[in-house]
Specification:
Order of helices and strands: HHHHHHHHHH
Number of strands: 0
Radius of gyration: 22 Å
Oligomer: single chain
Amino acid sequence: MTTLTTEPELGRSDSRPPVPDRSLHRDSTTGRVVEAVFATAVAAILSRDRELARTGDPDDIHKSRVATRRLRAEIRLLRPVLVRSVADHLGEELKWLAGALGEVRDIDVRLEDLEPRVAALGPADVAGGRQLLAALLAERERANAHLLAMIESPRYGALLDDLVTAAADPPLLPGDWRAEAPARCVLPKLVGKRWARLRADVAQLDDNPSVEALHEIRKGAKKLRYAAELASPIVGKPAAKMAKAAEGLQGVLGEHHDASETEGWLRHHAILSGSPSLAVTAGELVAAERHRADRFRRQWPQKWHRLKKKTPRRWLKHAPVL
């Protein structure tokens, strides 16, 4: 059984042992799935560790964030077969790391959106647009400094050590028959819980759901996508179709959320600046973000119906009762 470290190693990821490779197929056991989850995620996180500390490159931050969030979601999915104390501890630490990565990544996404829009502004508005970008870049520097301090901390080093330990010795619940059982007898029920939760959340929406409510649906779609992708090598096409359709819903709602958040950021900085000319520039950009948010808001019901249509639920319905 996995034992978490109490003192971090002094070295960084290059001083740690290599993480074993794991592959999955139809006859893989649940224990093998757990091994693959940790091996894949830890390899991805460790491969970006040095670059995060050295450069803070947006691509490294993005991929580290994805690997961290995916592992956290998979740990929650597999929690019934894991040692609860280990699963909960790793989940909290991954949440801590993902928060800092997400803070920088969200700013990078906003910059990618606003930079071409500012470049396309008329001569009278370019100066105001550049002021807004300068404020955003200053936020990026602060967020990146916070991230750098975190990944140089003993807490981060301890997290990497714990992840490597979990990859080498997966924290499976001792004596649980499911560890040696075929994953095709265990995973469908776990994925089915994610699907049922998402359906229930969508059913509770009103006719004009808030940005926050749609963001929760996006998070549910992402969790379902990760679960279905994990099940795909075991179950095959039904899980793969579900994952692809869930990704489509997640993508549209992600665009909607990003546009809404950028609109809010622009409004806040227009008020904060106290500059009428900057407020005019921000107003132009706000209108563009509002148009983008509305466009994706109109698209999400179609993506939801496609997910329902493309989700062959027989493999979930006939999952063994655990």
